Amino acid sequence: MKKITLITFLLMTSVMLYAQSSTRFFNRVFQDITVRSEIQYGQGAPVGSDTEDPLYFDFYEPAGDTMAHRPLVITVFGGAFVAGNRSWCDMVAFGDSLSHYGYAVASIDYRLLPVYRITETNFIRAGYMAAQDVSAAVRFFKGNCDLYGIDTNRIFVLGNSAGTIASMYFLWMDDDERPEETFEDDGWLGIGGHSDLGNIHTTGFPEYLSYSPRIAGLIAQWGGVMDTNIISNDDTTPVCLIHGTADETVPYEYGAPYGESFLGITTLVLPDLYGSYYLDQRLTSLDVEHELHTFEGKEHCFYIEGTTTLLPEELDTCFRIALHFMTNIMFDNTLPEGVRDIDDESVLVFPNPVEDFIYLQIGDHNSNFTCELYDMQGRRLMRQENKTSMNVSALPSGTYILQINTNNGTQFQKVIKK
């Protein structure tokens, strides 16, 4: 576990950016991006309704990108499960910035709770539905990885407030940990009942149900959970926690959301939450790789003033934290066990670092395979079929990505050229 102060983080980032000058994912290397809006990834009925509504995403990507499969960041907006949308200012800002750095970004919808239906039970149900929608989005992109150019081993989720809460439940909640409010209840004399919502990973279009909901990492901005015990020994996905100590909307430590009232309604209708302080303790006790970035005296969602005014310096700080977290996972081999969709131990790459030739040891069951070498700007430099050596002597020193396509799927290997 890493506890990182802002000063230490900025020093680390400065060194990293200097060392990786002009490289994809570490720097803004794409001048232009493209944005496609209102693409459907699923559908679902919100709280109190039997009618399913379409769920959309906006898709950001570098213009003219030649990298076949890019890391994807799924962004999940905040708004207390009653407001917000995929086009809120911070979601657009993250989509724009990350795609200039070489990421694909999907800003997603999720089902919201009508204000007139606010109760504690319905808040819990709405948060659970949102978690189901995050899962449906992850599985949709894994099922359409070629269409959208997605590296399924490098899908990240970035949440804001309610979007973080939903993402935490998506990541950590097992089927036997579901809140009782998510099951069927006949109510009292037929009044106040509700249906069974099903398990978290069982919604979305049926053709994507078989895909794994695993992700490479979660960036959790000012979120919390009702019970930290939902984090267990098998929850090994890296997490980056960002939270201000003066947050009264989602407490940094523990308590009722929104301080004294929410929309003029007593907080008795809202469940108490454990914030990042206690999440850090739980993750530490289980030895889960994570970072805690604590901002003394900062309030909720401190990079937005009001509801529409972004504060550039504060937003950039959170952006840099997210960027550093993701690049560490992608290039420092910190993906936890079970995250990779393809794990073929019969494929070996050596030597690394390399001077002249890269050699591959391929198992007998992989009779047909291809190797593609990319630079850090995502440009494909070489492609070979069924060859176990690759001559890289003419390439300049630096970092490259070797993509190996076998019968069992696709693997990626960072290669250092001396």
Give a verbal description of the structure.
This protein has 418 residues and is an alpha/beta fold. It is globular. The longest helix has 24 residues. The protein has 2 domains: 330 residues, Alpha/Beta hydrolase fold, catalytic domain (Rossmann fold); 70 residues, Immunoglobulin-like. The chain contains 7 helices and 22 strands. The strands form 6 sheets. A 9-stranded mixed β-sheet has the order 1-13-8-7-6-4-5-3-2, sandwiched between helices. A hairpin with a 2-residue loop joins strand 21 and strand 22. About 7% of the residues have low confidence.
Write the layout of secondary structure elements.
Blueprint: E1 2-3, H1 6-19, E2 33-44, E3 53-62, E4 70-76, H2 89-100, E5 104-108, H3 120-143, H4 145-148, E6 150-160, H5 162-172, E7 217-221, E8 239-244, E9 254-255, E10 261-262, E11 265-266, E12 273-274, H6 276-285, E13 290-295, E14 304-305, E15 309-310, H7 312-331, E16 348-350, E17 357-361, E18 370-374, E19 380-385, E20 389-391, E21 398-406, E22 409-417
Parallel strand pairs: 1-13, 4-5, 4-6, 6-7, 7-8, 8-13
Antiparallel strand pairs: 2-3, 3-5, 9-12, 10-11, 14-15, 16-17, 17-20, 18-19, 18-21, 21-22
In brief, what are we looking at here?
The chain is an alpha/beta fold. Helices cover 23% and strands 28% of the residues. Helix 3 (120-143) packs across helix 5.
**CATH fold label of the largest domain:** Rossmann fold
Task: Give the SSE string.
Answer: EHEEEHEHHEHEEEEEEHEEEHEEEEEEE
- Low-pLDDT windows of residues: 5-22, 333-343
Radius of gyration: 22 Å
SSE-based structural type: alpha/beta
Biggest beta-sheet profile: 9 strands, mixed
Task: Look at the structure and give the mean pLDDT.
Answer: 85
By CATH reckoning, the class of the largest domain would read Alpha Beta
- For the termini, the CA-CA separation is 32 Å
**CATH homologous superfamily title of the largest domain:** Alpha/Beta hydrolase fold, catalytic domain
Helix tally? 7
Note the overall shape.
globular
How many domains make up the 3D coordinates? Answer: 2
Oligomer: single chain
| CATH-derived architecture of the largest domain | 3-Layer(aba) Sandwich
Helix content: 10-25%
